[in-house]
Amino acid sequence: MFRAASRLPTRALLATSTLGAIVLQETPREKLSIYPSPNPDIILVETPSALETQIGVIRRSICQTYSNGHAYVQGWVSRWIGVEHAVERRVKSIVTPQESLTPGLLYVGVATLTGSILARNRRPITRLILPPVFFAVSAKHFLPKTTHNLSDYLGSIEDAHLPAFAEKHEIAKQHSAMTWDRIKEATQETRGHINRGALNIVEKIQEATGLKLRETLGLGEEVKQHVEEKVAEVQEAVEKVTEEVKTSVNQKVEEVKTSVNQKAEEVKEAAKDVVKNVEQDLTREETEKKGEEN
């Protein structure tokens, strides 16, 4: 019994030794190179400190804030430049180059100051009304085109933002224009009556005394000049009417010509269609006859 137990470990040792020898024989040996092995690359990884990281964050935030502020300021500068260009274009469209502003504005200012001086000791309503009236009349007299352009611009703003007030303003302007025309007609009629009365008085004095007062006072020349002016006005009106009639007649003639040409083209097209239909009918009849003969 003791012999069998002693034999077992020796057998196990022999088996393990043989297996180890077999494994050692099967694993190949690593061949060494005849050349020297290259030096391995050394990679340095930069790791910033906490202070550097905080400084970088602060620097980036400062740069971002600066760029945002610069863009904001640049946007306002661009808007201001756009406003300047718009104002410049508007002023150039209002002010006409044919009218010099240097003496015109001076005259308008003097006239407005004169109106305020004249209304200094008047009623409050007169103080409020008289200077603007002097300003408007003087601007219309010394700077007519510029005043017209400015009134058109203000009218466009009024139409865009205050349409109801613009409508009332337009009605007031029409009424004031009608009143002004009536005043002008009344003054012209009054002047004509006065001139005719003066001529009648001069003629009566001339008949009674025999003196040539008309030639002395130059009334005959004035009457002649007035008549010539009226004749010239009538001629201009007649010429305008004739030009308008000519243009309208020419337009009508052109319209008639175009309509006639269109009708002629339509008739030609209709005739071509009729001829084509007749030819088709003839060819159809010929084919039918040939078919019957066959």
Largest sheet: none
Rg calculated over all Cα atoms: 56 Å
How are helices and strands ordered from N to C? HHHHHHHH
Percent in strands: under 5%
Gross morphology: flat
Q: Kindly, what is the distance between the CA atoms of the first and last residues, rounded to a whole number of angstroms? A: 135 Å
Helicity range: over 70%
Mean pLDDT: 76
Number of helices: 8
Strand segment tally: 0
Helix/strand-derived category reads mainly alpha
Low-confidence stretches: 1-8, 19-26
3D structure, described in words:
- The chain has about 290 residues and is mostly helical.
- Among the domains are: about 55-95; about 220-270.
- About 85% of the residues lie in helices and about 0% in strands.
- The protein has helices spanning about 1-25, 50-95, 100-120, 125-140, 145-160, 165-210, 215, 220-294.
- α3 (about 100-120) runs antiparallel to α4 and α4 crosses α5 (about 145-160).
- The protein is flat, with a radius of gyration of 56 Å.
- The N and C termini lie far apart (about 135 Å).
- Residues about 1-10 and about 20-25 have low confidence and may be disordered.
- Component of the MICOS complex, a large protein complex of the mitochondrial inner membrane that plays crucial roles in the maintenance of crista junctions, inner membrane architecture, and formation of contact sites to the outer membrane.
- It holds the Pfam family ApoO.
- This is MICOS complex subunit.
- Keywords: Membrane, Mitochondrion, Mitochondrion inner membrane.
- It comes from Agaricus bisporus var. burnettii.
